[in-house]
Design brief:
The protein is mostly helical and 714 residues long. The protein is built from 29 helices and 6 strands. A two-stranded antiparallel sheet has the order 1-6. The protein has a two-stranded antiparallel sheet with strand order 2-5. The chain has a two-stranded antiparallel ribbon with strand order 3-4. Helix 24 runs antiparallel to helix 25. 38% of the residues are buried.
Length: 714
């Protein structure tokens, strides 16, 4: 076996075709460059978040010694309020026309005409009596001249008088009459009578009655005015102090307004940091150093594999970019958008692709950077609220993925993360006095709830890309492949039921053995399910599928050898056609390594009649197992077939058989290209023996009188 210090440890994502360039996968220099690259990118993303330089010698009326530029975009509250008030004042008073009042006045006019005609039509009364009666029913304030002319109106003019009066009153009241414009609107009656063909007496009567019916019907609408003023205020966009704006130019006299802006931007605080950017670089170095030390000491298999390291740092950078994008929306109106930071995206991807403990450690680091990203305009370097919520949401999402069974579980983890965020935000608002009203709280809770769901959606979207790019298998992908309804497994079950049963037992043996040494048990089980799928091309040539005669008895050993050996190659091709991930294809190709087909080799020698038979011609073409999981599946495959042939599989005979198979493979050099140690081989042997005891456990021999009755005692 290779020395652990010099031999690459590819893990289950090893690709044989890249062996010539595998050195980079374990190179310390490459690893250092990866961390330095991530640090540089994080530095660029966080440059705008450090505290601005402080100016304690600036005051209104003094000359600025240097230009001061805004480092962030921030709402200028005072200027915004001034513009909003100006917009509100520009809204004029709003009036409302009382349509019902206009209708009542028209109906009243009709009633007056009816009364007039009723009294004037009485021939038994004198004009004096008629006038007296009319004064009692007509509106107060009409002159004596009006009544005198009223009784002398010609009978043929009444219809035109009625129509003309109604039209003028309706028109004027429909346009609205305000109290301060009453006389002006009544004068419109005179203009309406200019073109009338009525006589002077009739015209006078129409004028006086119409003017009496014109009353104020348009009144000030306070509610509508206030609503329009509010709408005008809301229509004004917040006036920002934009990043890069020159607040004070060198040589200018500082005004009160400029001083106010400097104070809002935090330039006039008492905090001093002469080298903030160096401090930022140092902080990033510390944080990433803690990440590297954690990976090295607690997850050395990730630390030594630069493929996994690249994936880890890529997830870290992706999460940082997500936070940066969200932070761009924190300015202006959305002050609490930081609660939507996708910290759970990073922790869920790391938990699915690498390790739960590593995901929890990264959740802490994401919380640190989240506090910097959303520090509200650089008043403080860290805002603990956003850091705490990011840590809680990320940790909750990672914990929720424990025992994940399908991709829908990711969405459930997102909901769990959202719930944890909402509870934390509510607790913070109850404990810590903050600016804002109930709307700010609702906004914050909404962002917190959206953050977990947003992270879950991104995780589902990015997971497949990470699996493809880095050739990694997440537990979710493996569980999906283990579904018996997968086309290849269905094909295996229907066409080669013996091989299917064999593969299931091999999967159980391999999974237990892998977990005993800390390898990927789920990969072993799923790889075992597919390792013999190539047998479906010629199922009758494999003993577990034979129901009667053995076709190998009728063909030459060389042809039998070719058929048997081809199942590994055929299986690998079938797996690739169905886009099965590379690690499982590798298991199918490597589980026999370069082992010898002893039965057909010896049979060929017996039939050779003295001709030379080369051992190399009866070996599998390989490659040998390149990683632990492929070697374990190969051992389990050989053990299951061998133990099946035992007549009485007692525990002692089973253990001797298992250890002999492992010893033969070891001496044959089948483990030379993978990193199994002697201790691990011993653990594998013990685990397989324990599992086999559960499968081939002893049974009580039945008395003769009970045989054939179908009674099982064990």
């Amino acid at each position: 076996m290779l020395n652990e210090e010099t031999k690459p440890k590819p893990g289950f994502s090893f690709r044989k075709r890249f062996r010539l360039s595998d050195r980079w996968k374990t190179s310390r220099r490459v690893r250092l460059l990866l961390y330095l690259g991530l640090g540089a990118l994080c530095y660029l993303l966080l440059m705008g978040q450090v505290l601005p330089q402080q100016y304690n010698d600036i005051s209104p009326g003094k000359v600025a010694k240097e230009s001061i530029v805004s480092p962030v975009t921030k709402v200028d509250q005072e200027a915004t309020e001034k513009v909003r008030e100006k917009a509100a004042q520009s809204v004029g008073k709003q009036y409302r026309i009382d349509e019902q009042l206009a209708d009542r006045q028209v109906k009243r006019l009709e009633t007056i005409f009816n009364e007039i005609q009723s009294h004037l039509s009485d021939a038994d009364k004198s004009n004096k009596e008629k006038i007296a009666n009319l004064k009692e029913v007509l509106p107060y304030g009409l002159s004596d001249e009006f009544y005198h002319k009223l009784v002398h109106v010609k009978d043929g003019e009444w219809t035109e008088m009625r129509i003309l009066s109604r039209e003028m009153v309706q028109e004027i009241l429909a346009d609205g009459v305000r109290k301060n414009e009453l006389e002006k609107e009544r004068d419109r009656v005179d203009r309406g009578l200019v073109t009338s063909s009525l006589g002077s007496q009739a015209r006078y009567v129409v004028r006086e009655l119409s003017r009496q019916m014109i009353v104020p019907n348009e009144f000030y609408d306070k509610n509508r005015t206030e609503k329009l003023q509010d709408a005008a205020r809301d229509s004004v966009e917040p006036i920002p102090i934009r990043k890069g704006d020159v607040i004070v130019a060198a040589g200018d006299v500082v005004t009160k307004d400029q001083y106010r802006k400097l104070e809002e931007l935090g330039f006039l605080g008492r905090y001093t940091d002469p080298i903030p950017y160096f401090g930022l670089a140092l902080l990033i170095a510390v944080v990433l150093g803690l990440l590297a030390f954690f990976v090295r000491w607690f997850r050395p298999e990730v630390y030594r594999d630069n493929v996994k390291t690249t994936m880890l740092l890529s997830v870290f950078l992706l999460t940082m970019l997500g936070m940066k994008v969200i932070s761009l929306g924190q300015n202006l109106e959305w002050s609490t958008v930081g609660y939507m930071a996708p910290a759970a995206l990073g922790t869920m991807l790391i938990a699915l692709l690498l390790d739960l403990q590593l995901a929890l450690w990264c959740a802490i680091l994401f919380g640190v950077f989240s506090g910097m990203y959303f520090n509200e305009g650089s008043h403080v370097l860290f805002d603990f609220r956003y850091g705490l919520v990011s840590f809680v949401s990320g940790s909750a999402a990672a914990f929720a993925l424990s025992g994940v069974r399908n991709r829908l579980s990711i969405f459930r983890a997102g909901l769990f993360s959202s719930g944890a965020s909402v509870l934390t935000i509510a607790a913070l608002y109850a404990l810590v006095p903050v600016d804002g009203d109930g709307w700010v709280l609702l906004q914050s809770l909404a962002f917190g709830a959206a953050g977990g769901i947003f992270s879950a959606v991104l995780t589902i979207g990015f997971l497949q890309h990470f699996e493809t790019v880095f050739d990694m298998l997440s537990p979710l992908r493996l569980l999906e492949l283990s579904n018996p309804n997968h086309p290849l497994l269905r094909k295996l079950l229907i066409e080669t039921p013996g091989t299917y049963h064999h593969s299931v037992i091999v999967g159980n043996l391999a999974e237990a053995a892998a977990e005993a040494i800390g390898a990927n048990g789920l990969l072993c089980r799923v790889g075992a399910y597919y390792h013999d799928v190539g047998k479906t091309k010629r199922p009758q040539f494999f003993i577990e599928n034979q129901m009667a005669e053995n076709p190998h008895d009728k063909i030459s050993p060389n042809l039998s050898k070719s058929i048997i050996i081809s199942h590994a190659k055929d299986g690998c091709e079938m797996l690739k056609e169905h886009h099965i991930p590379t690690p499982i294809c590798d298991i199918a190709a490597q589980h026999h390594g370069t082992t010898l087909l002893k039965y057909f080799y010896h049979k060929a020698r017996e039939q050779s009649d003295g001709a030379q038979v080369l051992e190399a011609d009866y070996r599998y073409p390989g490659p040998k197992a390149q990683f632990k999981e492929a070697a374990i599946v190969g051992i389990a495959d050989c053990v299951e077939a061998a133990v099946r042939s035992l007549a009485r599989p007692s525990p002692e005979r089973v253990e001797n058989m298992v250890r002999k198979i492992i010893q033969d493979r070891l001496e044959d050099g089948q483990f030379d290209e993978c990193d199994l140690t002697f201790k691990e081989l011993d653990l594998i042997a013990r685990s397989i023996c324990e599992t086999l005891q559960g499968i081939f456990h002893s049974r009580i021999e039945y008395p003769e009188e009970h045989q054939g009755k179908g009674v099982k005692l064990a």
